């Protein structure tokens, strides 16, 4: 056993009882009164002869137990309404009856909904940190969510009591605590209005990048480093059919190693966009990652999860030391990547190809589509059937987007949804010819890619051409978008048209060329080619 808290204050007003034997012992008769009688001739015990016929021995009867006044049957037992004493998070365990903790919220999860055999439900959780450095996760379900979700704010200090402790689920809980608090209907959460400077804002356990190389796959850790490159955000299709965003950046530290950090979802557009703007402007910020997940696919990398937190240029000694090292020469220090070697201008697993290579290498002719990136210039845009009228109705959480036709009453009809409506959507279906230094090809650009190329919505272009019939303005917009250079993310797949197999190239995403990142990519290509020539 390990003593966690060496001293406790005295509870109540205990008194030392000074006295002799209990009253029951005083009333006991002498032992000689219970001596056995002499044996009779028939070996039976006879009754003892009384010493005096007028007096006979009467044994003393012990009085019945009388409960203390507070516990008489007349009323309920008194309840202890005194407030629970505040204890450190590290001292919490499931066997304590009454406890309270004072801690700061360091992270708050999103409200999530679920469905299982018991029905629908909702859940959210938040992490706490106290003045002793103890951390613990708190989880709320259903009705408790309604009570506390809007109350909890990151950075605020709360007094929390009356919750149950259960073993932490380490698959989802990365905190260094074997327990997790579950708040219940009688739990209390009170905001502490006065700021408590003894409780830190955040607690890190940074690992040097060189140690990540030996870290276990899927382990959760904290890392800090200088952001040396940030790649554009790209769309990724999940296994469930939903699309999300991914952005890759690189960190390096004083250990002489660098590592990839993959941002997913909202991290790409919030912190990721800010980091890209800083790096493109010549700034190299310090980034602290709280609760990043290790991935060992083709080397070691770090990825964000729902509980990950990113801190740009944090105010902590580690960040200050890293900045001082970078400014005093670390900027020019070469670093070795522990992740899969990629070009600084490209995303993870991104394959750069020229337009001629797409044809010469037979891309798209296998069972699965090929995904490549090409830097090319728009040289021609077809204006016939450049968009289509689409169904605006929602099917689940996705829009139908099927082509609709106008009926006789000027309402739009969707054959798939079998419904009519007053207004429809307009979606791009652009046929675009792109060209690089090796050749040219035709590609198809749908809604988002079409908007990026033409710089306006499909509805605006449809109204100009077919309702306002302003061919002059329509033509000006088309001509103004020619000879612009982009990075095209392409999906290449062979499809059947009638009886003929054709390779179809679809634009998944269009990005304006980031010339700073592109220059780094080209310089790296030159360095690699020189290195390869020396080897031969």
UniProtKB/TrEMBL annotation:
Domain of life: Eukaryota
Record field: compositional bias (Polar residues): 27-45, 53-62
Keyword Nucleus in annotation: yes
Compartments, record wording: Nucleus
Residue span(s) of domain Replication protein A OB: 209-313
Domain spans labelled OB: 101-181
Gene3D superfamilies: Nucleic acid-binding proteins
Pfam family, one: tRNA_anti-codon
Subunit structure as annotated in this protein's UniProt entry: Heterotrimer of RPA1, RPA2 and RPA3 (canonical replication protein A complex).
Record family assignment: Belongs to the replication factor A protein 1 family.
Function: Component of the replication protein A complex (RPA) required for DNA recombination, repair and replication. The activity of RPA is mediated by single-stranded DNA binding and protein interactions. Probably involved in repair of double-strand DNA breaks (DSBs) induced by genotoxic stresses.
Protein name in UniProt: Replication protein A subunit
Organism this protein belongs to: Gossypium hirsutum (Upland cotton)
